[in-house]
Amino acid sequence: MLRLLATLGLFALLIGPASAQQSEEAVLLADRVEIAGNDRLIATGNVEVIQGDTRMTAGRIVYDQSTNMLVIDGPITLNDGADTVILASDAALSTDLKNGLLRSARMVLNQQLQLAAVEINRVNGRYTQLYKTVASTCQVCGKRPVPLWQIRAKRIIHDEQERQLYFDGARFEVAGVPIMYLPRLRLPDPTLKRSTGFLAPTFRSTDALGFGVKIPYFITLGPHADLTLTPYVSTNSTRTLEYRFRRAFRAGTLSFEGAVSEDDIREGELRSYLFTQGQFDIGRGYTLSFDVETVSDTGYLLDYGYSDKDRLDSAVEIARTRRDQNFRANITAYRSLRDSESNQTQPTITADLHYENRFTPGWLGGSAGFAFDLHHHYRRSDLDIDSADSDLIVDGRDVTRASARLDWRRDWLLDNGIMIGALGALNFDFTDVADDAGYSDSVFEVTPQAAVELRWPFIRRGARATHILEPIVQLAWTGESDTDLPNDESTLLEFDEGNLFSLDRFPGGDVYERGLRTNLGLRWTRFDSSGWTLGVTLGRIIRSEDLGQFTGYPGLEGTKSDWLAAVQLQLPNRLTLTNRALFDDNFSFSKNELRAAWSSDSLSMAGSYIWMEANTLENRPLDVNEITLDTAWQVDDNWLLSLDWRYDVEQDRAAEATFGVEWRNECVEVDLTVSRRFTSSTAIDPTTDIGLQVSLSGFGAGRASQRHLARGCRG
Question: In the beta sheet, which residues pair with residue 211?
Fold first, then answer.
């Protein structure tokens, strides 16, 4: 009752007639109230003042009506909104808490940045001035009285409206040792996401460029755009300006990223690259996306570590996807950076249009679809024969093709558990070949496809495991053709469990797998009660006759394909093993691939081994024999180690290796990467790249999720 009466009395005394003019005057609550004289009021015991979104607690408050001020004895806690907390020993503030002085104070912004000052002066509720101040986001305790880093300043002004911190006479210290002095310094407070200014620098050292530093400068261009300019200077006379522009629109986004350089690698040349990306919603469910990739020379991207792409693609596409429809139209321009490829004889421009509609035919049942494709690819060369490169591909061949496809599938389940499936397709193709001496006329052909499939799954349930055994037989047929069209798009073939029961194993639309064939497969899966699972797939293809379509492709050529064997083991301890192999009747392997992956809450590891026979048709003159390893180890809340490694067993040397160390706590982030590229070409040499970046937390938004990384203060 006493608290209620004090509240009502102080509310009337403090607000009075002013309540009609201001809707957010201060409200004071206390356990005990004393009236001294005619104009002084003293509140003690659980004292609390509320004014708008500002709340203050104190031990004792004296209200002087003649000066309209609050004299406050601590300990004082002032919460100014959700992001600012001020602690002080004593203070003198106006009744609206917007002006006044706090002594022996400490201000905490966004629960991260701490600013300790001899006194704090609040001005108009917008500016907070701190005198003789120390700022840091590092934890301070008896065990570590000196923070890892701190900024000492004569004065700091916090502009709550602009969310900026202004330092006068700032001195940056690391472990108490002065490192840098700055007469003036401006930094964003932790609640500001975007602000013009310098970002954390990056130090980089490479064999080709020497030691260098990147100092990015971020520029806000309104609420929806920004520009980042990054000068990069290194010891090997490298002068580089990197840039990145981003713009967000109501219906999409646009970005530009690139760099311009002068260096000793190519003296007298101006080196550059530009990557552009954009995506827009153009209405009615359609999306327009595009990207442009260009570079001045073949080695620039790798020399500066911008990208490891060896083929650039610039494209524009319009697409729409619905539940039963898909539309896509695109044009792509390619540029190869590989020494082994010529941009005169490689297809440099491709254009594709694809439309597909799925439906259920009421009179047939099952699922049916209609698809239409339009394709064109262009080579710069006009030669209509294969020149000196002897890659078996005509140097100037251009191809245009229009295709329509109607397909259907339906499954039946018999009483004894046998599943019967029927599927078929009818393809209409018009193909025109230019700049090829072997083809002078356009070709139109109709290609029918049909298949019958039989599956008979067996299930056995036991006390310890469940077994599923499923034999599959598929009889497939595709009409033969008298025409001999060139194969430009389906030169890279895969044979795995994903296309074992497919009507066509050619990935492109220019070639069909023809003839009568039987696809055989056996799948066995064991689900153990202890949590592990083992799956095995075994299959092969048997053809009635060899039409020569797969000649030169190990694993698929001849009347009988190699055996396909795939094994996957999943253990409850998060270990997964996968092996896929192709081998003939004599167990001579043409391909073998093994991958293992294991992960825990703190460690993830993945490794693979692949071996493939050489194949000139796939531009692989040597056997592929490689081992790769990817690991990431979260040692504790602060340390993260990573390793990416690729070893070429055939060449008996490492191909690439990257080692990374990240150390983070509540106030600093250190990222160190060391990478080595061992391969070489006429454009690039083997090189080692070392990168280092140090960032201070607490300035600008985005670090709140890392508060749990705080160092312990036990002892």
Answer: 205
Q: How many CA atoms lie within 13 A of 477 on its CB side?
A: 7
Of the pLDDT bands very low, low, confident and very high (cuts 50, 70, 90), residue 226 is very high
Whether residue 413 contacts residue 431, with contact meaning beta carbons closer than 8 Å, is answered with: no
pLDDT one-digit tens code per residue, 378-421: 999 998 888 856 667 888 999 999 999 999 999 999 998 999 99
CA–CA separation, 706 and 113 (whole Å): 13
Q: How far apart are CA 381 and CA 349, in angstroms?
A: 12
Q: Residue-wise over 578-606: b if at least 16 C-beta within 10 A, else e?
A: bbbbbbbeeeebbbbbbbbbbeeeeebbb
Rounded (5°) CA angle 669-670-675: 140
Q: How far, in Å, CA of 102 to CA of 88, rounded?
A: 6
In terms of residues, how long is the chain? 715
Are 297 and 304 spatial neighbours (Cβ–Cβ below 8 Å)?
A: no
Cα–Cα distance, 658 to 671 (Å, whole number)? 13
Percent of the chain with pLDDT over 90: 60
Q: What are phi and psi of 298, to 5 degrees?
A: -70, -25
C-alpha–C-alpha distance, residues 472 and 352, integer Å: 36
pLDDT-based confidence at 65, cuts 50/70/90?
Answer: confident
pLDDT digits (tens, 9 = 90+) for 253-311: 999 999 999 998 888 899 999 999 999 999 999 999 999 999 999 999 988 999 989 99
Q: Which one, of 576, 581, 583, 580, lies nearest residue 605 by Cα?
A: 576
Q: Residue 28: its pLDDT value, please?
A: 78
- Cα dihedral across residues 493, 494, 498, 499: positive or negative: positive
Cβ neighbours of residue 72 closer than 8 Å, sequence gap 6 or more = 56, 58, 60, 61, 62, 90, 91, 92, 93
Q: CA nearest 109: which of 136, 84, 77, 130?
A: 84
Strand partners, 471: 522
Query: What integer best gives the mean pLDDT of the chain?
Result: 88
In the numeric block, which tokens belong to residue 495?
């044979």
